[in-house]
Design brief:
The chain is mainly alpha-helical. It contains five helices and no strands. α2 runs antiparallel to α3. The model has no long low-confidence stretch (mean pLDDT 88).
Length: 104
């Protein structure tokens, strides 16, 4: 069963400033989620995408690695914010509706 208090703690805090921040928070979210929770699978996908961005930066295959890292951090902040909003009052941005409906 998803641990709601652990999930809330995982998404609390300030904005992500680096890939490390994003990955650490994704790991904390993942630890709070039950494997049967649809959000768990999205979280795993998001983590894989972020890891891919890190590898791309390390291989120097991207023209603007600072931009890519900032973009990943911005989207992560939106994702974590949507979880916070849903936990607080059941609301979510329309774009996140399908995602949060997958939570148990």
């Amino acid at each position: 069963m998803t641990d709601i208090s652990q999930l809330a703690a995982a998404v609390s805090g300030g904005s992500c400033e680096s890939y490390k921040d994003v990955l650490n928070r994704l790991d904390a979210v993942g630890a709070a989620l039950d494997a049967r929770d649809g959000l768990c699978w999205f979280n795993r996908l998001y983590r894989a995408m972020t890891e891919s961005c890190v590898q791309t930066r390390e291989s120097r295959r991207v023209q603007d690695p600072v931009f890519l890292e900032g973009l990943d951090c911005s989207f992560a902040d939106l994702y974590f914010g949507a979880i916070r909003a849903h936990l607080a009052d059941g609301s979510e941005a329309a774009s996140m509706d399908t995602l949060v409906r997958c939570t148990r």
